[in-house]
Fold:
Amino acid sequence: MPDTTHLILTAVGPDRVGLVEKIAAFIARHDCNIEDSKMAVFCGEFAVIVLITGDGNKLVKIGRDYREIESETGLTISIKTPAMRSTAESFLPYKLTASCMDHPGIVYQISNVLSGMGVNIESMETKTYAAPISGTPIFQLEADLAVPTRTNVAELRERFGEIQRQENIDIDLTAAKNQ
Structure:
């Protein structure tokens, strides 16, 4: 692990004020950087995933010392060295949004189409909220996709069109700007 420049830390447990600060301080004390992160609180439970970068030896120390922050916060923490991603295939970035009245199976329907066509979900966020006036539960999904250049995007749109008609889901697939 000494040559490693990235480490992934995940943490889950009861939410309380100051958890992000404690995790960030732990990483900073080891002279490493938070490159990317996602966090949320669900029903009083805190969850975070953090991509940490730094010198290999300092990341080794984080891997050795993480129990210290685990006992300080009461979170269940896991550390993983990410596998090297093969870049043999070219991908195009796309944004996908979907919304409809909430019902079971929406994420399955959409992810099944994407998986079947070799499209990777790079990032996804879903939420349910009450519609103004009626209070009807509305489901919303936003995802960043890596679409292989070999994928027929017209066919992908056609498959989503079938779901739109069958499940009454509004689905929008747009090319994203390269960042």
Q: What stands out?
A: The mean pLDDT is 94.
